[in-house]
Amino acid sequence: RTTMKSLRFISAEAFVSNAEFARKNLGAVAHDLFPLLFKASYLLEQGEVIHDLVENWPLFDFNMGKLLGATLDYQEDLSHRTCSMCLESCLTGLRDYVLNQSSPYMKKLKVVDLTGIKDVEVQFCKCKKTMGRWARTQLLSKLCSELLVYLQQAQCNPGTFEISINVLIDLFVTERNYELVVQALLKKCSCPLKICCAAFRSDNLTLQKFFYIIKLTDPSLLRKLEIVHNVHLEMEHLEILFNSIRFPLLMSLTLPARTFNVRRFTATDEQMLSNIGEKMGEMTQLTELSMSFSILTGRIQKLLSPLKTPLKMLDVSNCSLNHADMAYLASSFHANHLEALDLSGHDIPELYPSTFFKLLSHCSPVLRSLTLEDCNIQDSHVNMLILGLSPCQKLQEFKFIGNPLSSQALKHLFTFLCELPMLKNVEFPVPRDCYPIGITYPIDDANLCRFDHQKYERVTEELNLILLQANREDVKASTPLFGSYDAAVQETNNELGAYLIKSFKETLEKFTTSFNKMS
Known about the structure:
Layout: H1 7-17, H2 19-25, H3 34-43, H4 47-55, E1 61-63, H5 64-68, H6 84-99, E2 111-113, H7 133-153, E3 165-173, H8 178-186, E4 193-202, H9 207-216, E5 224-227, H10 235-244, E6 252-254, H11 267-281, E7 288-290, H12 300-304, E8 313-315, H13 323-331, E9 340-342, H14 348-351, H15 353-363, E10 369-371, H16 382-389, E11 397-399, H17 407-417, E12 425-427, H18 453-469, E13 476-478, H19 487-518
Parallel strand pairs: 1-2, 2-3, 3-4, 4-5, 5-6, 6-7, 7-8, 8-9, 9-10, 10-11, 11-12, 12-13
């Protein structure tokens, strides 16, 4: 598929394609052409030109999402191209904007917005080397620190110290880049490039370090907070966090696995849960909440009823919800506003079929994403599922891997899915008849790949043929056995793997020591 380019854009491409010529003649370019030249340079991966454009940026703001997004001159959105060379040229150009004293342009730049960059699985840039969210956090922090050192040592124009540029970025901090980010945030006041954290993700970090850095990010401006995987945050820590820090603009909150465990609850814990619910109620912008792999049986109402704003996204996968929880969700004011819902890991047909379908009917006018993985949906439930999904005409994504469905049932379901006009992405299970007879669900990791791969390929071809015959080639159907693509996890998996091995080793050593003492 080719995207039409205006004559202006074609001319811009011609201008930047000769890097030496473009760099020499930038001084003669009108200010309002810089955005056009930037997008053309990014498309052609002209790193040196990108650097010089940013170094001499003549406008008040520099918004990556808008600059790379669909424009009248070139409709294609390039904001998902996280090309390492282009982004590095961009950020070093920003550093040199501060240092360049001979630029012919007056320094007007006040705001740089890097939050519009989207991390995706498939990259189209020629170099195929990406710069993810973690690496962008690392590089910007490094450049801010280097800039300060240089300004303190060199004889700079006094005007350089008057430059103040807010750089909006989604920070991603782990143990490996923690010190560097902390230094950049601590020295924010004296650095011309001021890191402004719009979203914060932390992984593989001790609680002490998490609490320290979150205060440095200016939580009053934070819109998204993700505390994931290897941050051992439990309910009492969450209460301390909410009692000591206010998040007035927070729109999205992700909590790590096992934050809550109601099976161990005391009267004090019940009060603590109520306090957390009330604190979340004070976050009047909060519309997205993810609490997967916590045990919340019978407590969903206590946690969600204080919220003043209806949720648009709710992830309560593997949270051991009971009938009372589902009944609350189905009748709550959140139900009519849910655009994304994840109820994975619950035996829906067995535990609360009618309540689930009531919830589905309430959110059907707005629902865009539905995830029902490992929900024990069987062949006998498919007709009922089709009935429930029929009103969901805005559904764009449906994920249901891990369910014991036969290839025949999948074909029946796919025939229906073709009728959902907005559908773009389907994640379906390996058919039950591809596994050995007697396999039990949910399938453990050891047996997950032990299926007839040839038969699976044949079934996949048949399912794609159903899509093709219905003119629905726009729908991507896949079976990600070990979960959907997660750019952040992908980028830091080496560090996380090393952390898990270290934790396992420490546990083993403690066990051995205890065993030796007993002996």
